[in-house]
Design brief:
Helix content is about 75%, strand content about 0%. By secondary structure, the protein is mostly helical. It comes from Microvirgula aerodenitrificans.
């Protein structure tokens, strides 16, 4: 039984690896489950045992993309100690810098942002991804609410809007960088970019 479970896990990872390659090369809409099975060297029955449709493949790919980021999120945002604003800063700097370091993360983000049509069969994937981003924004917004209550955030700042602005800026920066990585030194600018946004909502700038 143990060997069977291990084999199933390896097959699932092989299918996700194949899906990554094909989605990156052909786009999501032009890749079928049969294509993925063939590229992974397994039968069509094998892929349907793991995934009912492309939406499930897409959700699994997104989960695999999120794993290292979620670990950092849990460490810094959920269970972290010390200056909460500094932890928010470190989390988003990590998200930006890790994308420049990890080829897999870069490829997966490129698929998610530029090579997928979020219609019809991928709607469940949209809902799943939206749920993840919503949880992150809510956690950051709560930190900002608490920071505002003790006078760390400016009185005119809306914590929820501030959290959304930060998230949208990071995702926008990543989306543009993925198109022209050689034109923008994202790793070098990650810290200053996040500092610029945070300093705009803080009573006292981070570096003071």
């Amino acid at each position: 039984m143990r060997r069977t479970k291990e084999d199933a896990a390896l097959t699932r990872e092989s299918l996700l690896d194949a899906a990554e390659r094909l989605f990156s090369e052909k786009g999501v809409s032009r890749t079928s489950l049969a294509d993925i099975a063939g590229a992974a060297g397994v039968t069509r029955g094998a892929i349907y045992w793991h995934f009912k449709n492309k939406a499930e493949v897409f959700v699994a790919m997104h989960a695999r993309l999120r794993e290292p980021v979620d670990a950092v999120f849990q460490k810094l945002i959920v269970a972290g100690s010390g200056d909460p604003i500094r932890r928010v800063r470190d989390y988003y700097v990590y998200v930006l810098e890790e994308t420049t370091r990890s080829e897999r993360r870069r490829r997966l983000l490129d698929i998610l942002t530029h090579k997928a049509e979020y219609v019809d069969e991928l709607k469940p994937a949209i809902d799943d991804i939206h749920g993840v981003h919503k949880r992150v924004s809510e956690a950051i917004a709560q930190i900002f609410v608490e920071a505002k209550a003790v006078g760390v955030l400016r009185a005119d700042v809306d914590p929820e809007l501030a959290a959304e602005t930060l998230r949208f800026t990071v995702h926008g920066a990543l989306s543009i960088w993925l198109l022209w990585p050689e034109r923008y030194p994202l790793a070098e600018r990650a810290g200053p970019l996040i500092d610029q946004i945070l300093n705009g909502i803080l009573v006292k700038p981070l570096n003071d």
